[in-house]
Design brief:
heterodimer, A: about 100 residues, mainly alpha, 6 helices, about 55% helix, globular, B: about 425 residues, alpha/beta, FAD/NAD(P)-binding domain, 5-stranded parallel β-sheet, 8 helices
C-alpha cells in the first residue's frame, strides 16, 4: 500500500485488509478500496456492492457468489469480469464487509 | 388427535420419528412421515462401493423396517408446504394437515448446476458417488481404469459429508496400490476451499497426509464448466485441469419444494435457529439434518446430535414450555485414510477439530486427527450401529454436546508460524 492511500484511508482494517467496522464505510471509502484492488467502479460494480451491503444488514454475513447471482441480476461470469480472480472476497472488501466465512 | 408430520424419512427424519413416538402418547398423537423413496440408504456406505468394499445390498433396506408400525409412511414427492394454513401439499394432489411439522428432507446433488457436467461424458468418464447409482457405475469404471489422471473435484460448498471427498482420494490411492498400478495414476484433489478441509488445523493435518500419499492438491478452484471435448474442467478464473476420469461432488441443494414454498435460501436450505432448531419464522415448524442452513457439517452425526436436542425441545413446546436444550453444532466423523486405517475428528460451532483422544464408553478411546486401525474399525462397526441403534432412535453412549475431554489445545500462534514455514 503506498503512503498516499494509507493517509487517505485512516480506518482500522483487519489482517486481510477488510474494514474492521463495516459502519465506517461510505462511497468514497469504496472508491479508495477499489483503487487498491486496481478496479475502477462502474454502475454494475455498484449493483453488486449495494446488494452485498443490504444483504449483510440482514444476514450479518458477507454473501457468497451463489447468493449474489441468485438475488441480483449479476451472473457468475460477469462477477468474475467485474472483480477478477476472487469476486466474493474482492467485492466484500470493497463493500466494507468482513471476508466471507466460506464453509463448514 | 394432534398431528405430527415429518418430511423426509432419511437418517434425521427416521430417528426423530422413533424418538418422539417413544416419548408421546399415541392415543393423543398421530404420526405421518412423507418421503419420495421406499428404500432407506446407508449413505456413509456409498464411499466404499466404488472400491468394491461394499456392494448395493450392504447399503439399502426398506424404510418401513425402521418405522413404528402405527406411523403412516406416505410415498410421494412434495409439491409445497403452506405454513399459513398448516398443510403439506403433495405432488399426487393429497393435502396433509399438521399441528407440528418437522422438516428433514436433506440435500441432494445437482450436476446440472454446472455447465457441461451432465453431458456426453456423464457416467462415462464423469461420475458422482453421492448417489447409489453413481457409486455403482463408478465401481465398474474404476475396474477398467488402467492409468491416467483421476481428478476429484468439489464444485461448490457446502456439501454433504465434507470429509467424504478426502476419504475417496485416500481410498483411491490405496486401491491403485493394491492393483499394482499406483505409479500409472495421477491423483489430483481440486477444491474451491483454500486448503484440504474447511477447518485450519484439520486442513493442515489432512494436507500433509495428501503430500505423503503423493496426491496433488489444487485449491481455490471454482468450477465454471466441464469441457467434454478436451476432457478438462475449467474454473471461472480460467484455470484448467485435464482429466481421464473425473469424480465430482456437484453442487448440493435442498429439495425444490422448499423453493416453491418460499421457505429457503439460495440453495434451498431452510433458515433454522442454530440452538433450538426451530424454524426462524414459523413456531410450529422444526428443522434438522442436512435441510437446515446451520453453520455446521451436513452429516449423519450432526443429525443424530440434533435429534437428541430436538426431542427434548419438541416435548417442551408441546407441553407449553420454552425450548430448554441448546444445540452446539456438534459433529464427529471417522475419516477412512486407506490401508485399513482411519482418523477421527470432533468439533462444534466454536471449537475446530483438535488432536487428542475421543472418549467413548466401552469402545474407545479413538484417536483424534491421527491415523489408527481402531478408527477404521470404528467406521466399519458404525454400519451395525446405524441400522440397529441409530435409526430406531435408541440411546447411544455419545454426548450430544461436544466435550473438551481428551482434546489437546493447539497453540494457534505456534500452529500459524509452523504453517508459514511449511
Amino acid at each position: 500500500m503506498d503512503t498516499q492511500t494509507e493517509k487517505k484511508l485512516n480506518i482500522e482494517r483487519d489482517e486481510d485488509g477488510h474494514l474492521a467496522d463495516y459502519t465506517e464505510w461510505n462511497e468514497e471509502v469504496a472508491e479508495q478500496l477499489a483503487e487498491e484492488e486496481g478496479i475502477e467502479l462502474t454502475d454494475r460494480h455498484w449493483v453488486v456492492i449495494n446488494f452485498m451491503r443490504d444483504d449483510y444488514e440482514e444476514k450479518k454475513e458477507a454473501p457468497s457468489i451463489r447468493r449474489i447471482k441468485t438475488y441480483s441480476d449479476v451472473g457468475t461470469k460477469e462477477l468474475y469480469q467485474l472483480f477478477p480472480k476472487g469476486p466474493a472476497k474482492k467485492a466484500s472488501k470493497i463493500a466494507g464487509l468482513p471476508k466471507p466465512k466460506g464453509c463448514i | 388427535m394432534k398431528r405430527i408430520v415429518i418430511l423426509g424419512a432419511g437418517t434425521a427424519g427416521t430417528m426423530m420419528l422413533n424418538k418422539l413416538h417413544k416419548r408421546l402418547d399415541t392415543k393423543e398423537w398421530e404420526f405421518t412421515i412423507i418421503d419420495q423413496d421406499e428404500m432407506h440408504y446407508y449413505q456413509p456406505g456409498f464411499l466404499f462401493i466404488p472400491f468394491d468394499i461394499y456392494e448395493r445390498d450392504d447399503v439399502i433396506k426398506p424404510k418401513k423396517y425402521f418405522l413404528p408400525p402405527d406411523a403412516r409412511l406416505k410415498i410421494s414427492p412434495i409439491d409445497h408446504v403452506d405454513p399459513e394454513s398448516k398443510k403439506v401439499h403433495l405432488s399426487d394432489g393429497e393435502e396433509v394437515p399438521y399441528d407440528f411439522l418437522i422438516i428433514a428432507t436433506g440435500t441432494d446433488i445437482r450436476p446440472d448446476e454446472i455447465e457441461g457436467m451432465k453431458e456426453d461424458l456423464w457416467k462415462r468418464d464423469v461420475f458422482d458417488f453421492y448417489t447409489l447409482d453413481g457409486a455403482v457405475s463408478l465401481s465398474e469404471r474404476l475396474k477398467n481404469f488402467k492409468g491416467g489422471r483421476l481428478v476429484l473435484n468439489i464444485a461448490e460448498m457446502p456439501i454433504k459429508c465434507p470429509v467424504a471427498p478426502l476419504e475417496f482420494i485416500f481410498l483411491a490411492d490405496d486401491y491403485f496400490k493394491k492393483r499394482g498400478i499406483r505409479d500409472k495414476v495421477d491423483l489430483e484433489f481440486v477444491t474451491p476451499l483454500s486448503g484440504a478441509f474447511t477447518k485450519p488445523i484439520a486442513a493442515k493435518h489432512l494436507g500433509r497426509m495428501m503430500e505423503d500419499k503423493n496426491i496433488h492438491l489444487t485449491t481455490d478452484f471454482n468450477i465454471g464448466q466441464v469441457d467434454n471435448d478436451e476432457k478438462k474442467i475449467v474454473s471461472w478464473d480460467e484455470r484448467e485441469v485435464p482429466f481421464d476420469l473425473l469424480v465430482t461432488i456437484p453442487t448440493n441443494m435442498g429439495d425444490d419444494y422448499v423453493m416453491r414454498s418460499e421457505m429457503g435460501d439460495e440453495l434451498n436450505f431452510i433458515p433454522t435457529d442454530p440452538h433450538t432448531l426451530r424454524h426462524k419464522t414459523y413456531e410450529d415448524i422444526f428443522v434438522l439434518g442436512d435441510a437446515t442452513d446451520l453453520p455446521t457439517s451436513k452429516a449423519g452425526s450432526v443429525a443424530h446430535f440434533e435429534a437428541e436436542i430436538l426431542e427434548d425441545n419438541f416435548i417442551d413446546v408441546v407441553e407449553g414450555r420454552e425450548c430448554s436444550q441448546s444445540f452446539d453444532g456438534h459433529a464427529n466423523c471417522f475419516i477412512e485414510s486407506g490401508g485399513g486405517k482411519g482418523i477421527m475428528i470432533d468439533f462444534n460451532y466454536d471449537v475446530e477439530p483438535l488432536p487428542g483422544k475421543y472418549p467413548w464408553a466401552n469402545v474407545g478411546p479413538f484417536s483424534l486427527l491421527k491415523e489408527t486401525k481402531m478408527n477404521h474399525y470404528g467406521k466399519l462397526f458404525f454400519k451395525w450401529v446405524y441400522w440397529n441403534l441409530l435409526l430406531p432412535g435408541r440411546q447411544l453412549p455419545l454426548e450430544s454436546q461436544m466435550t473438551m475431554n481428551g482434546k489437546i489445545q493447539v497453540d494457534k500462534e505456534e500452529e500459524q508460524k509452523e504453517q508459514v514455514m511449511t
